[in-house]
Amino acid sequence: FLCKEVVFMHSLSKSSQGSTYTIKWMFGAPQILEFLKGYGIREGSDIRVFQQGKDGIIIGRDNVRLAIGEDVARRIQV
User: Fold this and answer.
1) Which of 4, 18, 27, 44 is 20 to 30 A from 11 via CA?
2) Can you tell me the distance from the alpha carbon of 64 to that of 23, in angstroms, rounded to the nearest whole number?
3) Region 58-62: what's the mean pLDDT?
4) pLDDT class of 3 with cuts at 50, 70, 90
5) CA–CA separation, 26 vs 42, rounded Å?
6) How many CA atoms lie within 13 A of 28 on its CB side?
7) Which residues neighbour 56 within 8 Å (Cβ) at sequence distance 6 or greater?
8) pTM of the full structure
């Protein structure tokens, strides 16, 4: 009997406040991606959603907290 785990990705903008997610992939402006990577936020990173708003969200990992816009959050899949 072979069992496979099915994983559905969704946009970070659709994530739940207070939950932790693993970033599967990111795309967007190179400057924004480099900024995020400078704080250790990249593919494979575990991040937590601290606050979800209509214009953006606050995410974090370890001791880092970042506010990102809705357009950036839509380009991050978890």
Assistant:
1) 4
2) 16
3) 95
4) low
5) 7
6) 20
7) 67, 68, 69, 70, 72, 73
8) 0.82
What is the Cα–Cα distance from 33 to 37, expressed in whole angstroms? 6
The token duo for 50 is 């601290």
**Identity of the amino acid at 23:** I
- The H or E element that residue 32 is part of is helix 30-38
SS3 23: coil
- Rounded to 5 degrees, φ, ψ at 49 are -95, 115
* Cβ-Cβ contacts under 8 Å for 4 (sequence gap 6 or more): none
Q: Biggest alpha carbon distance in the chain?
A: 47
User: What per-residue confidence (pLDDT) applies to 54?
Assistant: 85
DSSP-derived secondary structure for 34-77: HHHHHTT-STT-EEEEEEE-SSEEEEEETTEEEEEEHHHHHTEE
